Here is the input.
Amino acid sequence: MSGMFDIVLTKKQEEIISTFFEDNSVRWILSVGGKGSAKTTASVYILLNLFFNPEYKGSKILIARESLRDLKNTLVREFKSHLTKLGIPEDKAYTHHEGLQLFRSLLTDTEIYYLSLSSRNDQYRSVLSYEFNVVIIDELDRISEEAFDEVSQRMRLKHKFNKGLLNLNPVPETHWVYKKFVANNFPQTKIIRSSTYDNYLIKKVNAKAFSLKATEYVSPQGNIYYVINNTRYEIIGKDGDYYIVKEFNVSHPFLVEMEHKHYSFRRVMLEGQWGSVNVDDGIYTPYFTERHIATDIITPKDLMLYYRLYGGFDFGVRRPAFVLIAEDEWGRYIVIDEILGENISSIQFVETIRRRLREKWKLDIQDVEIYGDIAGSFREQSDGLSIIQKIREQYGINIKTQKVKVMDSLFKIKTLLEKDIANIPALRVHQDCPMMLAGMLGEFKMDEQGKPIKDNYYEHIHDAFRYGMMGALKNNFNSNFKVYVPEY
Ligand SMILES: Nc1ncnc2c1ncn2[C@@H]1O[C@H](COP(=O)(O)OP(=O)(O)O)[C@@H](O)[C@H]1O
Ligand SMILES: [Mg+2]
Here is the structure.
């Protein structure tokens, strides 16, 4: 297909494009990737094929983005410049009506409309009067869910070909796109994830000439690359007098700049993992690095022999939360498990915790010292009993409470993150705890006063973590640990 226009595609682009044109079970492709991972360019190639291939004749295509100006400066401009580069003559092969924001192919009658989907904009409403069989939205994460729903209901033109492509930078679990497509498994959708490092072409280069010209570069992550005229290469093989190399399509200085950013930014914008890029207001973002992600394999037997266990329990009416913290012999902590309840009472949630501890960790809930908020010991108006009392009566479990001052707990956690014990951070989060990881990397956010903000999602995991952690620290009779006050 790409041969039609003499364009060389990256592997990821091939995957996106073949899914787009060949997989009939898919209505929506969610193409999620970091900055510069070649998403927009893949869309341009798709447009070119749709526009001229007689297979798709009579198509009505919508391309959209939040802002019309951005759309004109990216997709539309690239599309047009490819037409020019390929020597396709305007007004013979196609027409461009700038006022109508429309391209029409004179060979296939296919029409491409380009529109803004900003909710503050009239064009959004004008979408309502069209029907399309193909929709391409760039930067979906910036568009409202209502706008998407509207467009989705307009992708109903009867045509033998029907497909939508949604490009976006990764979003956190709290974003509507994540909820709709990932958490709630939107039907007929295929999610294709890519990273900026996927944006390369394989080349074969003369080894001698290459070595003469190339400068070695070692990234902060320890990977070895070679650079010629700001283009980055990675040697992946040798074939006689030739090297097989990856030639990256984004510039070397751009990659260097990204690689020097904080890990929380890199993992989202460079590696394309789900998460937030707005991490400036993350409480722990400056303290939490890759070193704080534990990859140790911890078996139930290890837990029994070498660790002391603490739980943090955030009571809640709808979303109770629990985290499990293991303290090793050195007095270092690893958060090893997390549960966030959904539409479940705190009392029922105890059963969820009990089951998880038994099934995943072969632990009796009694083996874990669980801490909760002091409010859990207050009597409730309805029956004069506190949550703690009810849990004790129903399950025979004693949940401890203590008064935890918010700022005090944040300070102690930051201090732990900055401290090493025998060259390993005193506090880590296990890689199997995605909510805690996302939280530490930016989703546990603070307001201007530095207080945690209430988002009704991450805040609950954060609270559970704080209660558990403060319980563990109170109990830490290991003299290795001292909270010290840094000098300012
Ligand atoms: N197949 C390709 N061959 C050469 N360059 C490419 C290719 N795909 C993408 N690029 C280049 O890589 C850069 C980033 O691509 P782009 O599509 O803008 O990424 P994204 O939309 O994911 O941020 C652009 O400069 C683009 O021209
Ligand atoms: Mg783009």
